[in-house]
C-alpha cells in the first residue's frame, strides 16, 4: 500500500498513491495509516485524488482509521473522484467526514517522507 | 454481437470444473475463478472493461461496485472456512440492460430477505460507527430483479443492472 505522508498547511497529509482501496488491500491500508500517524497530533487529511475505486471493505478501513485516530485527531478526506464520492454518498458516510474538494497543499518548508 | 477476439485475454488462469467458457452467440462475458481477493479484482475489472464502452463512466463505476460487493461477499462469507472455491460470473447484455448471474459452491446465504437492505446508521457516536454492513445494501440499491436461489450445493444470485438508472 503506497501511502506517502507530507507535512501540510492544515495537518498531516496522507497521499494514497494507489488506484484502489478495496477488499484486497483494506487491511494493509489501515495498518500503513496507523504506522504513519503514530505519535503525531493534529488533523490527518487523506488525499484520495489518485483513487478511482473504493468498495465497502475500503470504506470500512477508512472508517476504522478515523475511529483509530479519534478523539485526539480528526481524519479528513480530500479530492474524491466521482466513483469514490458515490460510495460515500450512497452509504451516507459523506455526512460523517469533513470532505475537502481539493487536494491539500503541503506546508512551506515541508519535508516529504515515505 | 459477438465477443471481440481479444476476449481470449480475459479467460481465467485457473478454470474451475464448473465453467464451460464464455457463452457463445450472445453478447456475454463469462469468467470462472477462485474466490480470492486479487482474483475478484481481476474478474470485476475485466467484466467492467467488457461493457464500459457502452455505458458512461458513472454506470461503469456503479457496475464495478455492485460486482465487487457481491464477489467480496462470496469470498468472505460463502467460502468462510472452506478455502477459496470456484466462482462463475456471467454478464449478458440484452434489452438495454445487463443480466448478471453469479454462482458459487459455498455456504448458503443466510436468508437474503432478512439481510440489511438499509445502510448502517451514521447518526451515532464516532466509536459506534460500523466498519461494515454496507455491502448487501449497496447491491440492493444498485440493482434490479435481485434474486437468490440455493440449488443443491450451489448458490445462484441473479440481478439486472440498468445503465442510466441511478
Describe the structure.
The complex is a heterodimer of chains A (114) and B (166). By secondary structure, chain A is an alpha/beta fold. Chain A has one domain: STAS domain (Transcription Regulator spoIIAA, 2-Layer Sandwich), CATH 3.30.750. Chain A is 31% helix and 25% strand. Chain A is built from three helices and eight strands. Chain A has helices at residues 26-37, 56-69, 82-90, and strands at residues 3-8, 11-16, 20-21, 44-47, 53-54, 75-78, 99-100, 112-113. In chain A, helix 3 (82-90) links the parallel strand 6 and strand 7. Chain A is globular and about 35 Å long. In chain A, 44% of the residues are buried. The model of chain A has no long low-confidence stretch (mean pLDDT 92). Chain B has 166 residues and is of the alpha+beta class. Chain B has three helices and five strands, in the order E-H-H-E-E-H-E-E. Chain B has helices at residues 37-52, 57-78, 135-142; strands at residues 28-34, 86-94, 97-104, 144-151, 154-161. Chain B has a five-stranded antiparallel sheet, covered by helices on one side. In chain B, helix 1 runs antiparallel to helix 2 and helix 2 (57-78) crosses helix 3. Chain B is globular, with a radius of gyration of 16 Å. The interface between A and B is medium-sized, with 28 and 30 residues.
Secondary-structure map with pairings?
The complex is a heterodimer of chains A (114) and B (166).
Chain A: E1 3-8, E2 11-16, E3 20-21, H1 26-37, E4 44-47, E5 53-54, H2 56-69, E6 75-78, H3 82-90, E7 99-100, E8 112-113
Parallel strand pairs in A: 2-4, 3-5, 4-6, 6-7
Antiparallel strand pairs in A: 1-2, 1-8
Helix pairs in contact in A: 1-2
Chain B: E1 28-34, H1 37-52, H2 57-78, E2 86-94, E3 97-104, H3 135-142, E4 144-151, E5 154-161
Antiparallel strand pairs in B: 1-2, 2-3, 3-5, 4-5
Helix pairs in contact in B: 1-2, 2-3
Amino acid at each position: 500500500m503506497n501511502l506517502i505522508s507530507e507535512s501540510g498547511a492544515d495537518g498531516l497529509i496522507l497521499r494514497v498513491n494507489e488506484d484502489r482501496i478495496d477488499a484486497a488491500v483494506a487491511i494493509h491500508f489501515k495498518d500503513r495509516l496507523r504506522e504513519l500517524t503514530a505519535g503525531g497530533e493534529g488533523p490527518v487529511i487523506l488525499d484520495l485524488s489518485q483513487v478511482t475505486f473504493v468498495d465497502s471493505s475500503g470504506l470500512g478501513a477508512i472508517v476504522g482509521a478515523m475511529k483509530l485516530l479519534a478523539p485526539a485527531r480528526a481524519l479528513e478526506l480530500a479530492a474524491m473522484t466521482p466513483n469514490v464520492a458515490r460510495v460515500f454518498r450512497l452509504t451516507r458516510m459523506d455526512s460523517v467526514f469533513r470532505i475537502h474538494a481539493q487536494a491539500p497543499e503541503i506546508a512551506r518548508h515541508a519535508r516529504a517522507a515515505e | 454481437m459477438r465477443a471481440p477476439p481479444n476476449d481470449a485475454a480475459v479467460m481465467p488462469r485457473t478454470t474451475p470444473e464448473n465453467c464451460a467458457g464464455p457463452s457463445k452467440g450472445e453478447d456475454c462475458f463469462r469468467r470462472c475463478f477462485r474466490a480470492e481477493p486479487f482474483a475478484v479484482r481481476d474478474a470485476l475489472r475485466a467484466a467492467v472493461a467488457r461493457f464500459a464502452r457502452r455505458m458512461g463512466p458513472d454506470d461503469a463505476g456503479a457496475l464495478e461496485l455492485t460486482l465487487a460487493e457481491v464477489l467480496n461477499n462470496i469470498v468472505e462469507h460463502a467460502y468462510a472456512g472452506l478455502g477459496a472455491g470456484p466462482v462463475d460470473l456471467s454478464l449478458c447484455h440484452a434489452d438495454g440492460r445487463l443480466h448478471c448471474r453469479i454462482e458459487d459452491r459455498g455456504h448458503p446465504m443466510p436468508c437474503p430477505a432478512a439481510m440489511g437492505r438499509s445502510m448502517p446508521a451514521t447518526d451515532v457516536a464516532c466509536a459506534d460507527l460500523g466498519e461494515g454492513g454496507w455491502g448487501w445494501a449497496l447491491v440492493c440499491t444498485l440493482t434490479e430483479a435481485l434474486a437468490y436461489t440455493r440449488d443443491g450445493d450451489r448458490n445462484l444470485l441473479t440481478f439486472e443492472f440498468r445503465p442510466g438508472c441511478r
